[in-house]
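**User:** I keep going back and forth on a fold encoding question. It is easy to fool oneself when nobody else works the same problem. Could you pick a protein and write out its sequence and tokenised fold? Could you put it straight underneath, so I can go through it closely?

**Assistant:**
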Amino acid sequence: MKKATPKSSQSHTTHSTASSDQRQRLLVALRKVGNEGLTTIQIREQLDIMMPAARVHELRWNYGYNIQAIPDHDYNAQGNHHSCKRYVLFSGRWDKVRRAA
């Protein structure tokens, strides 16, 4: 397993597409919102991360973060309703068991 905190390849700017910068932006945002979590749509539109599930997978399996994916619904910027996941960061390590909070 890698270090507990993924290192950024540069100062994590909003517009960087580097996976390490995206993981760092996602972690900062999940910590900030707490138990409210963020939906797939929010992560894409607010954090400029086009593949949130891939970044969550990396944070779980490579770094041990306990991020749960909870089924949810949200509206995108165009007003379209979508089924998606809400990602919530919990304390402790990822236990490799898929379960909602």
In short: Residues 19-33 form the longest helix (15 residues). Residues 8-12 have pLDDT under 50 and may be disordered. DSSP finds three helices and three strands in the chain. The helical segments are 19-33, 40-47, 52-61.
